[in-house]
Amino acid sequence: MASTIALTSGSASASPVFGYSGYSYGTDVESGLANSGPQVISKFGCTTDANKADKNDIAAANVNGQAIARSVKTDTHGFNNASGTGVTSTAVAADVKVGNLLALTGVKTTTTSKYSKGQLSYTGSTTFAGVKIGAITVPSLINPGPNTKVAVPGLGYIVLNRVGGVKTASGIYSYAQAVVIHATVKNQFIPQGVDVAVLKTRAEISKPATALVIGDAYGTKATADKLVVSDATSLQTTCQGTEGKTVRVAVGELNIPKVAYVGGVYTTKNGAIGESKSYINFTSHVAGVKVGTLSIGAIESSASAWKTKDNKAGVSSSSSIASIKVGNKTYPVKTGENQTLDIPGVAKLTFNQVLRQKRYISVNALVIDVYSLNTKVVVGHSAAGVVS
């Protein structure tokens, strides 16, 4: 299934613009089997609006049924003031606990990327009010240096204040994470082999350009009664592309409690902004999804957008689904855009759900409306566009 639309204009190119994007997560499972994707998320994709902002807060962020972070608040906002123009992302929590193995209190992490007087720069940091490993209080870790690795008996190890920034020819992005928990030994709190980032932030700004590339991709997202029960998995966004390199983000199997089991998920992005042409391509790949008796085979989608210096532009999308089964019965995968299949008593399926706007296209390979759970699961999302 594929669709393409080309847009042309005879007007002159728009004035150079900046691109802003960023996110803050309460928790994010980075590998292995987990009970949800990112939680307590505030984010926005690429925008030219320096006043863009998003906030979120929740009592607790859970991983594997455990309340890992409590009283979590996240904030991501753009700015344009005397210091420059850019994005700041912040996440705070009253405490972060892994049973009796680890206790962090008064946790705050923040990162900023900005453009000022022709220069790109970033900052990032994490602070704690208290750090306790097992029964031992460790005052020296209240203001940890970047990427401080500490062993945690009975769990594995943690990395405190994971920070960094990447500068490209097109802009800069920075990241800061309060703590990354690596569960390398068997324990009752986090499955062995799982990595969990707690208070994870990212900020990105592009240099002035005649056209920015926008879009996002994720594997799955689930909502029930308009409440997010599992946010975007393997999420990728962009403002400045990837300098033509393919960036891949993957997670392992995913169990959305009482809703669905999802196989391995990965997304890719590839694109660049330049004087002659700007382009972006996102893809999403899901190994399979099971919702009750409903079993869906491999699911994929892609979305692309481009624009040239003479103001020619276009967008395209595609999606595919390998198979659909309920028990031993196989159902056909319908072709074309926005096709539906009703399976009485089970779910309504929407295939190749496409949305077009000016120089922008998004596609959901599959949307599952589960009747018994009043839940909507989006699978295989890709979107791409250009802004000038």
UniProtKB/TrEMBL annotation:
<protein>
    <submittedName>
        <fullName>Uncharacterized protein</fullName>
    </submittedName>
</protein>
